[in-house]
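Workshop exercise sheet. Pairs work together: one partner reads the sequence aloud, the other fills in the structure field after running the prediction. Swap roles for the next sheet.
Pair: D.N. / O.F.
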Amino acid sequence: MDAKADRSMPILVLIATEFEISPSLEARWLADLPAVRQTEISRWPDRKARHRSLIGSRLLLLSLRRFGYAEACLATLRHSPSSRPTLDLPLEFSLSHGDGRVVSAVSRTGPIGVDVEAVENLSAQAFGYFLNENERAWAGHDPRRFYSIWTRKEAVAKAAGRGLADVRSVDTGGAEQGAEFAGKHWQTVALPVGMHYVAHLACPMDRQLRDCLAIEQLSRHALEHGEFSVDSGETPDSRRPIRPFLH
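Structure field:
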């Protein structure tokens, strides 16, 4: 681990806008992944799906570099069809992508979960199986409220190491923040992903999430060139709130 690692930042969230990757860049980013994962992604016929996954992996790599780990740290990345991806490192991470946004969250202080969704014309009534009575009442016919509930539910399920089947059991209580799941209280924070998206970060209640959280938006240039320059033009050491996406 690099001695220059940023030890003052327990949780780092990186946000990027989805873009089309050139064939040469796709090959280069694939080469950073374990051979099994390279083969798996290469077989996907959907180019956009490949690019989303690679952008997520790149955000994760840049986060690990920020924490002081070497380029080869993704060699231990494992994906299982029945559980969340893992790394042989003393940290937790979570990845998510909506139609146009990709988000990575890395934590050195315990479980973390993140979910981002593009806002569509959906309401709580369309997903009654996954939402309880209080959640359906709070969301009503407002799509953004529905996605606020959904992203909090999925983020909590990810932080708890569970899957989509457990989303129904996460109870947000029909409120703006927080959730109950598996006998525990979970805190959630909304992420600045733009007016057409909703995203939330979730972790247990044993730490003050807002006090140990850094959120940064990376530009396409930063991702393509491996540079840690944020969309707002500020340096990576900035802890001031980043400007929101304008599209």
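Discussion prompt: The chain is about 25% helix and 25% strand. What would you look at next?
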